[in-house]
Amino acid sequence: MIYLDSAATTLQKPPAVARAAARAINHLASPGRGGHKPAMAASETAFACREEAAALFHVPSPEQVVFTFNTTHALNIAIKTLVKPGSRVVISGYEHNAVTRPLYAIPKVELRVAEAPLFDQHAMTEAFRQALDQGADAAVCTHVSNVFGFVLPLEEIAALCRDRGVPLIVDAAQSAGCLPLDFQALGAAFVAMPGHKGLLGPQGTGLLLCGREAEPLLEGGTGSQSILQTMPDFLPDQLEAGTHNITGIAGLLEGLRFVRRQGIRNIARQERRLIRRMGAGLAGMAGLRVFLSEDPEAQAGVLSFLPEGRDCEELGELLGDRGFALRAGLHCAPLAHKTAGTLETGTVRASVSPFNQDWEVRQFLRAMEQLTGR
User: Fold this and answer.
1) Which of 77, 107, 109, 249 is the most exposed place for a label (fewest CB within 10 A)?
2) pTM of the prediction?
3) What is the domain count for the chain?
4) Residue 193 falls within a domain, yes or no?
5) How high is the mean pLDDT in each 10-residue block of the chain (374 residues)?
């Protein structure tokens, strides 16, 4: 099988990830739940993971790195901290349901969508400027569209928010580990990210980088200040109720270490090179609409295409039968499809990781030539 669905979950992981997770099952207890060696070893592993993430994303203190179940969990904490009934919120036109559904669940939120053509970073900056100038209590912005790989101008948007005193939540689901991201320079209130995508960790892991105090989404035991019937008022304990997924955290630590060793800029360069090659090959085939940016810097390691006169899901199944793992449909992001004009059809999406190679792209293009009758 040739795996081209890393925007959903990276399947190929560094071998150290599985080894660390397996060792954790047999040797690590719960962090903060005892002074014995297995508990202390778990605490050391968890803190090392926070330190690694803090170093990778330029977070001032490891305590500002909070463990979550996934990006959706992290976004829910951030959104429900900043957004209250009646709040005015600006979002991009490329947001995932992990952003829009929590916002729609809060009563009377005034939602303003900053719309811009696909891959037009300048237009997106201006759209955010205009939307923010109408007044906002918070802004939420994805760094990279999970459907099209569109790299939004995050630094410019963050600067607009800072200048207007609007707290910003960043959805880094598709950029963490794949593109450079400087938390301190952004000045964002929160940055949410998964452990199981670009950071190459196990499923069921995520991180929330906190630039300000947050409101707990869950209450329960933390192993600290147990006498109190309220959650601790300090990070990360304030947001980490219950037993940690130390098995996942141990694996995530090794994923983070791998990304740091490889270098995010090197990973970005490799993924973009593969996507450009794939996009150019598909663009030469009849009956395909390929969403490839003219500017390589405006697209990350995600590529969508649309077969004319054929159902996307059908094409995805045909590719699956031939041993290619892609994803077809709306990708949990109907707003992005609405913005790009593909809501009625969806797209077929290919996405790469540091483990994909040129020969895999060549085989995929050959399969597509056969299916399109080129």
Assistant:
1) 107
2) 0.96
3) 1
4) no
5) 98 98 95 89 97 98 98 98 98 98 98 98 98 98 98 98 98 98 98 98 98 90 79 88 94 98 98 98 96 98 94 96 97 98 97 98 97 78
